[in-house]
Amino acid sequence: MRERENMSKVKITWKAFGDKPEIGRFISSVEFETEFKVEEFDVNKFLEVVYHNTNTYSGNLWQIIEPKLSATRTHTSISVGDEIEIDGQVYICADFGFEKIEDVEIKRFSDDSIFRVIKKDKVDN
Fold first, then answer.
1. What is the pTM of this model?
2. CA–CA separation, 70 vs 74, rounded Å?
């Protein structure tokens, strides 16, 4: 068995869609450990692989994710507002790519559905 320090804990949380939209926002999560430490690789590349695998229902990560999905889950494609947590750091699917959650502004519809996720303007002091 590999040592935990050589693995990363990943949690994917879908927030944007659900099987009962009339009830409001539906949230579902899947957690797993990688066989490698994500920080040793390009985090953005890893996030894009998760995005691609969940949108095409294929790939090595999809083989790990699919058996962990809720039986009632109807939507597994990552979309704006969904989150991927890697070793405690949360990244949110933004209008373009992924951003650290603390670096974005989230605009919501009146029913609290996520509408837009945009990078905050940086102000130099």
1. 0.78
2. 9
pLDDT, tens only, 11-51:
998 876 544 444 445 578 899 999 888 876 689 999 999 99
Domains of the chain, by residue range, sit at 4-118
* Model confidence pLDDT, tens digit, residues 78-91: 888 889 999 999 99
59: left (phi over 0), alpha (psi -120 to 50) or beta: left
Instruction: Specify the amino acid at residue 41.
Output: F
84 CB burial (10 A radius; 0-12, 13-18, 19+): buried
Which amino acid appears at position 61 of this protein? L
Q: Tell me the one-letter amino acid at 33.
A: E
CA torsion through residues 76, 79, 83, 87, sign = positive
Q: For the beta carbon of residue 47, count every other beta carbon within 10 angstroms.
A: 19
In 3D, which of 89, 75, 91, 81 has the Cα closest to residue 28?
75
Residues sharing a CB contact under 8 Å with residue 46, sequence separation 6 or more, in sequence order:
38, 86
